[in-house]
Queue: 3 jobs
Job 1
Amino acid sequence: DGGITQSPKYLFRKEGQNVTLSCEQNLNHDAMYWYRQDPGQGLRLIYYSQIVNDFQKGDIAEGYSVSREKKESFPLTVTSAQKNPTAFYLCASSTPGLDYNEQFFGPGTRLTVL
Amino acid sequence: GQNIDQPTEMTATEGAIVQINCTYQTSGFNGLFWYQQHAGEAPTFLSYNVLDGLEEKGRFSSFLSRSKGYSYLLLKELQMKDSASYLCAAMDSNYQLIWGAGTKLIIKP
């Protein structure tokens, strides 16, 4: 079965700690995205990557970092510099030019900072 | 700037019809998406419009007017499982999605 996996589903972190959220896809998609969703708000783009070894900042990249060493994987690190990291994090992938170029989403990781 | 507007919340009755509106302003335009998101879950793709007009998919239809920067999602024969948030997203000239805050749809028996 093709899809996107994110782990863990729930994550608790102490203030001041870095934490890495995993995102893996076996859809052979070129592009991958990280979004943050807060209650009552739309999805906000953190980082995106259109090809391996390349990524771009989204609207709210401060306090986050990513890597794209493999096509299948796009991990997100939430650093201690992120002032308000408690949120629902969604990873997505797509292939431009394929069908509607719609983005497919993983199940999400809910991060809570204690 | 780029902006998507949609109502925050709507209520409808099981078996009825509901229309969720969305207006958008983007730098360039490469299509309008509707996604459904149940609480605590990931968004799932519902529809895509890039040309003016109505696209029908079973109980769900989506309409686009590019000249007005307007779209709507029409849900017919509402079922309790349709209770969810509906997200409107416009694709800009860089093929990035600009997301609305979502419309929470509450279905009452």
Job 2
Amino acid sequence: EVQLVESGGVVVQPGGSLRLSCAASGFTFDDYVMHWVRQVPGKGLEWVSLISWGGGNTYYVDSVKGRFTISRDNNKNSLYLQMNSLRIEDTALYYCAKGRGSSITSCPDYWGQGTPVTVSS
Amino acid sequence: QSALTQPPSASGSPGQSVTISCTGTSSDVGDYKYVSWYQQHPGKAPKLLIYEVTKRPSGVPDRFSGSKSGNTASLTVSGLQAEDEADYYCSSYAGSNNYVFGPGTKVTVL
């Protein structure tokens, strides 16, 4: 059974930093691309970032480029999102999601339960 | 990276069908076969219903079907059931290694 468990979400001040983690199990982690998707409570989904199966290629939505860094440790079956220079508009529930395959065009299929990030002074 | 367009709400009686549209542009929905649909119940994570426009993951009932014409994709839920009441989101690969989502459609089973 695919399981994705996010952690690391907290309340942080504007301009602060945070690192989210996602522990994956139930599948061969390094066979798949991985996504981060966020959702403001009561609002829609926003794709944030994608990392290739090997970790060598990373992609971001324009609003987080230069501030967020996605990474993965295939030895630990873990996905990460380093978030710097946080803004109030980054407040959301952050989901880790497994891609359907190894291609960049592989949409998210399995999702974790999310970890909440609140940026507030 | 503009979001896709969906109607805010849709409804139908049990047993009826409801179709949700998802309009993008020639740079996303119109240019790629990588349109997907997700169902989200309150307080739950999204669940993949449809990928690559028309394909269903194993375990998803065939009451859920997808299609696309030009820049608009559609999700049809046939034989509506009470448990189909949820938010539905479309998504598309948008080129340049990006994805976009629609704002979601709340489906109510009357």
Job 3
Amino acid sequence: QQQVKQSPQSLIVQKGGISIINCAYENTAFDYFPWYQQFPGKGPALLIAIRPDVSEKKEGRFTISFNKSAKQFSLHIMDSQPGDSATYFCAASRNYGGATNKLIFGTGTLLAVQP
Amino acid sequence: DTEVTQTPKHLVMGMTNKKSLKCEQHMGHRAMYWYKQKAKKPPELMFVYSYEKLSINESVPSRFSPECPNSSLLNLHLHALQPEDSALYLCASSPQLNTEAFFGQGTRLTVV
């Protein structure tokens, strides 16, 4: 119930193509779904996030699609660039009261964008 | 300023040493977190502090001891670690009544 399943494990995309990463969750108490980008040796950086009352959110080349009934969400990276090559983590969170939230990460997707 | 600063960036320690990791944020966030990340794995939650009080301990061994001296600082005291504790230790913070978590760059810990 606490897991977030992420696929694919790795992804190779040509420059200019669309990268798609999928995640699924079980716990309907989750109410916040962020995506993080992590470069080797660095901490995860927040990319974009969505809440269950919205089906899609777009920021620049990054779009989250959210399907509440299917308990699935996905990240689309349009016009993928070599600089997008990194590990991407989806995550799910629920608030435990006050300012506490517990972020559960997916297993990660290693994206390689070929020039 | 959305920066979470962690020091040191790298740390090598022996199994009998005592060391501390430090994390600082000046965004006024009232929740701070320690995560542990092994190579090619996602971050795993260790501790959560809310309003400077420990609110979640994910059954972390007592050789890891967190401390929150004030709302801007978070420490992780290390003692008698094992080689399998070698990992990237990440600090994060999030605002009150919000859930965006901002991560620091991490401390790369090697236990020898």
